[in-house]
Amino acid sequence: MHWVSYGRVSQEGIKGMVTSPSNRAEAVGKLIEAFGGKLISYYLLMNGNIDFIIVSDIPDDKIADVALVNAMLVRASGAIEIISTVPAVRAEDAITQMQKAQKMASAMAYKAPTQ
Q1: Average of per-residue pLDDT across 72-79
Q2: What CATH architecture does domain 2-89 belong to?
Q3: How far is CA 14 from CA 30, 52, 68, in A?
Q4: How far is it, in rounded angstroms, from Cα 82 to Cα 70?
Q5: FRET partner for 59 with CA separation of 20 to 30 A, picked from 20, 35, 45, 68?
Protein backbone atom coordinates (compact mmCIF):
# COMPACT_ATOMS: atom_id res chain seq x y z
CA MET A 1 0.00 0.00 0.00
CA HIS A 2 1.16 3.52 -0.68
CA TRP A 3 1.72 5.88 2.24
CA VAL A 4 2.42 9.60 2.30
CA SER A 5 4.64 11.02 5.02
CA TYR A 6 4.88 14.75 5.40
CA GLY A 7 6.32 17.09 7.94
CA ARG A 8 8.37 20.03 8.98
CA VAL A 9 12.13 20.30 9.20
CA SER A 10 13.42 21.82 12.44
CA GLN A 11 15.59 24.92 12.58
CA GLU A 12 18.50 22.60 13.40
CA GLY A 13 17.69 20.50 10.31
CA ILE A 14 17.61 23.55 8.06
CA LYS A 15 20.95 24.69 9.43
CA GLY A 16 22.33 21.25 8.57
CA MET A 17 21.02 21.54 5.01
CA VAL A 18 22.75 24.90 4.58
CA THR A 19 26.00 23.81 6.26
CA SER A 20 26.26 20.46 4.49
CA PRO A 21 23.96 20.20 1.44
CA SER A 22 23.05 16.62 0.54
CA ASN A 23 20.34 14.56 -1.10
CA ARG A 24 18.56 12.81 1.80
CA ALA A 25 16.56 10.56 -0.53
CA GLU A 26 19.12 7.77 -0.13
CA ALA A 27 18.89 7.86 3.69
CA VAL A 28 15.09 8.00 3.54
CA GLY A 29 15.04 5.09 1.08
CA LYS A 30 17.26 2.95 3.33
CA LEU A 31 14.97 3.56 6.30
CA ILE A 32 11.91 2.56 4.27
CA GLU A 33 13.70 -0.51 2.88
CA ALA A 34 14.44 -1.62 6.45
CA PHE A 35 10.69 -2.18 6.77
CA GLY A 36 10.43 -4.10 3.50
CA GLY A 37 9.17 -1.01 1.72
CA LYS A 38 10.21 1.05 -1.26
CA LEU A 39 10.68 4.80 -1.67
CA ILE A 40 8.45 6.01 -4.51
CA SER A 41 9.26 9.73 -4.36
CA TYR A 42 10.68 12.37 -2.05
CA TYR A 43 10.02 16.09 -2.44
CA LEU A 44 11.17 19.16 -0.57
CA LEU A 45 8.64 21.98 -0.37
CA MET A 46 10.31 24.11 2.30
CA ASN A 47 7.34 26.40 2.81
CA GLY A 48 7.55 26.42 6.62
CA ASN A 49 4.35 24.47 7.06
CA ILE A 50 5.03 21.29 5.11
CA ASP A 51 8.71 21.05 4.26
CA PHE A 52 8.81 17.56 2.74
CA ILE A 53 6.58 14.87 1.26
CA ILE A 54 7.62 11.23 1.00
CA VAL A 55 5.59 8.68 -0.97
CA SER A 56 6.41 5.09 -0.13
CA ASP A 57 5.12 1.59 -0.67
CA ILE A 58 5.15 -0.17 2.71
CA PRO A 59 3.49 -3.47 3.65
CA ASP A 60 0.39 -2.88 5.79
CA ASP A 61 1.72 -5.09 8.59
CA LYS A 62 4.78 -2.83 8.97
CA ILE A 63 3.12 0.59 9.14
CA ALA A 64 2.71 0.58 12.92
CA ASP A 65 6.46 0.02 13.22
CA VAL A 66 7.11 2.87 10.79
CA ALA A 67 4.94 5.20 12.87
CA LEU A 68 6.88 4.31 16.02
CA VAL A 69 10.22 4.79 14.28
CA ASN A 70 9.05 8.17 12.96
CA ALA A 71 8.09 9.21 16.47
CA MET A 72 11.30 8.10 18.13
CA LEU A 73 14.22 7.71 15.74
CA VAL A 74 13.52 10.34 13.10
CA ARG A 75 12.29 13.07 15.45
CA ALA A 76 15.01 12.28 18.01
CA SER A 77 17.59 13.19 15.38
CA GLY A 78 16.60 16.81 15.91
CA ALA A 79 16.36 17.45 12.16
CA ILE A 80 12.62 16.80 11.89
CA GLU A 81 10.16 18.74 14.00
CA ILE A 82 6.90 17.09 12.91
CA ILE A 83 6.19 14.01 10.78
CA SER A 84 2.88 12.34 9.93
CA THR A 85 2.17 9.27 7.81
CA VAL A 86 -1.20 8.62 6.20
CA PRO A 87 -2.49 6.03 3.71
CA ALA A 88 -2.73 7.13 0.09
CA VAL A 89 -5.74 5.60 -1.62
CA ARG A 90 -6.30 6.08 -5.33
CA ALA A 91 -9.65 7.74 -6.02
CA GLU A 92 -11.01 4.76 -7.92
CA ASP A 93 -9.95 2.42 -5.10
CA ALA A 94 -11.71 4.57 -2.47
CA ILE A 95 -15.17 3.71 -3.79
CA THR A 96 -15.31 0.63 -1.54
CA GLN A 97 -14.67 2.78 1.54
CA MET A 98 -17.26 5.30 0.36
CA GLN A 99 -19.82 2.51 0.02
CA LYS A 100 -19.01 1.27 3.55
CA ALA A 101 -19.47 4.80 4.89
CA GLN A 102 -22.76 5.05 3.03
CA LYS A 103 -24.04 1.83 4.66
CA MET A 104 -22.90 2.95 8.10
CA ALA A 105 -24.56 6.35 7.63
CA SER A 106 -27.84 4.77 6.63
CA ALA A 107 -27.65 2.47 9.67
CA MET A 108 -26.86 5.50 11.86
CA ALA A 109 -23.68 3.78 13.08
CA TYR A 110 -22.29 7.20 14.02
CA LYS A 111 -24.07 10.23 15.43
CA ALA A 112 -22.46 13.60 15.89
CA PRO A 113 -22.37 14.84 19.50
CA THR A 114 -24.98 17.47 18.61
CA GLN A 115 -27.48 14.89 17.36
Answers
A1: 87
A2: 2-Layer Sandwich (3.30)
A3: 21, 12, 23
A4: 9
A5: 45
